[in-house]
Amino acid sequence: MTTFLMIIQLLIVLGALWVGSRYGSLALGAISGIGLAILVFGFGLKPGNPPTDVIYIIIAAVTCAGIMQASGGMDWLIQIAEKLLRKHPGRITFLAPICTFLLTVLVGTGHVVYTLMPIICDISLKKGIRPERPCAVASVASQVGITCSPIAAAVVAFVSISGANGFEITIPQVLSITIPACLCGLMAAAACSYKRGLDLDKDPEFQKKIQNPEQKAYIYGASATTLDKQIPKEAKRAVYIFVGALAVIVFFAAFQNFLPQHSTLRAVKDAADISISPDVTLSAEHLVKAKIHMEGMTEMFDKPLAMNIVIQIVMIVAAALMIIFCKAAPKKAVAGPVWQSGMVAVVAIYGIAWLADTYFSNYLEEMQQGLEGIVAQYPWSIALVFFLVSVLINSQGAVVVAMLPLAYKLGIPGPVLLGVLPSVYGYFFIPNYPSDIATVNFDRSGTTVIGKYLLNHSFMMPGLVCVFVSTIIAYLLSLIFF
């Protein structure tokens, strides 16, 4: 009976995610609430815990990035990227994904690349390069950068959840694995895309299209560029503040001894676990710092300020500095795509992660019994689970928050989970993500396509190559260094 109920309730969870993904945007989180209500009120399951820490971090980070965009700082970053691409147009298939990847690493969201995509397409057309080649891999790169950003929810959630499960790791340590691995994956995808499809002068469909004067004017007539924009000094100042904030976060993550220390309690199994040297005579000070509560067996110890709190404080302060010193209008920030997409992510993660935690926390024992053999023999197989869940829920942060606690409870070692972190990007598989759809629309040549059969789209090959290579390299690096 329990197995039957588990299957029925799992179908409810998957159904809520599927329906939410069909509607997109805020619906993904909101419709997850319907699934949650059915599990709690219909089946009587105990509600799980909503991922409040991750949500607070996203709010702080996208507020800061949104304020930087409102100040004009994002225009300057896009302009720098465009200058690089126009200087080396023949290498755009490799340089375009590097630019979109770095923008995402810097800002923590892949929704900052919409201004750059028309420029990539324009440069490709002017050089006679099939736009599908750089555009598809650049769109993939804009999402791959999320697991390489120090302020992205996926990275911060991984560090926070790992620490709570005994795998103490810092943000710089995570990035030391994901950045080189994902860059290798992207270059492999770019290499596979370099000669992808027919050249424009040999493509009969494209040649037929430009025989029509109106179509030719549409494809070649407009020229997308940001180089004619005058970047004010306040915009550059905002970028310096934002980069400075990132540097502060990375510094504190690497050197936590510099953070304020606060006394807290932790549980111990018996008095022998209390960290007091046997040759120390217990003074009043020692008794305060290592106080044993015999009923609960706890001790007092000093702990540095949690990094999730550090990130929130630094990001909010940086946002305030940009408002004061960079003429950034808060109302303009709220209306911008970075802040709006970030708030959509908040709702999605809130609903999805709460729904998933409710289901998994109620059936943890049954899952441990059923999966312990597979997990013990093939711990890397959790990468397939991460990937498949990502296909459904379109959020890497939500995948980490929803699935990582379960992975630890199944007994999968932390270094293995770090190694498969790039596999949380799988939502290119079904091309309904905003960046992919926008890329198709930006490509005036029509070479970047969804495909007649849905899955035969332009993003499938570079996405699979990138995730496969990135995950293998990250897995090997993690096992070597951790």
State the order of secondary-structure elements, H for helix, E for strand. HHHHHHHHHHHHEHEHHHHHHHHH
The biggest sheet amounts to: 2 strands, antiparallel
What's the Cα radius of gyration? 24 Å
- Give the total of beta strands: 2
**Count of helix runs:** 22
User: What proportion of the residues is helical, as a percent range?
Assistant: 55-70%
Sum up the overall morphology in one term: globular
- Look at the structure and give the mean pLDDT: 84
Task: Report the oligomer.
Answer: single chain
Task: State the end-to-end distance.
Answer: 42 Å
The spatial strand order of the largest sheet comes to 1-2
SS class: mainly alpha
Entry keywords:
482 residues; two-stranded antiparallel sheet; 3% strand
Compile the SSE list and pairings.
Blueprint: H1 2-23, H2 27-42, H3 52-70, H4 73-87, H5 92-107, H6 116-127, H7 132-144, H8 153-164, H9 171-193, H10 204-209, H11 213-220, H12 233-254, E1 261-267, H13 284-289, E2 298-304, H14 307-325, H15 330-335, H16 337-362, H17 364-377, H18 382-393, H19 396-409, H20 414-419, H21 434-442, H22 460-481
Antiparallel strand pairs: 1-2
Helix pairs in contact: 1-2, 1-16, 2-16, 3-8, 3-12, 3-14, 3-16, 4-5, 4-6, 4-12, 5-7, 5-9, 6-7, 7-9, 7-21, 7-22, 8-19, 9-22, 12-14, 16-19, 18-19
